[in-house]
Amino acid sequence: MATSTYLDLNEKGKSVDESRYKGMISSLLYLTSSRLDTILSVCLCVRYQDNPKESHLIVVKRIIKYLKGTTNVGLWYPKG
Prior knowledge:
The protein has helices spanning about 20-30, 40-45, 55-70. It is mostly helical. Helix 1 (about 20-30) packs antiparallel against helix 2 (about 40-45). The chain is elongated and about 50 Å long. The N and C termini lie far apart (about 35 Å).
């Protein structure tokens, strides 16, 4: 997440589909086991699962775009 990005409750924002948002967040949480660089950003988005707004969805989509652009980065667990 960019250092200039600020997430807050945003009570006046437009609401989005909760189940879609939760599904995206759960997928990102699964990926944090191999992509440690995303843990902070994903955990900040998890806070707003109860009542997600459009601004929160934009940040989640930005994280997904980052992951798509950096597919060659991650942890590798050798077998031995």
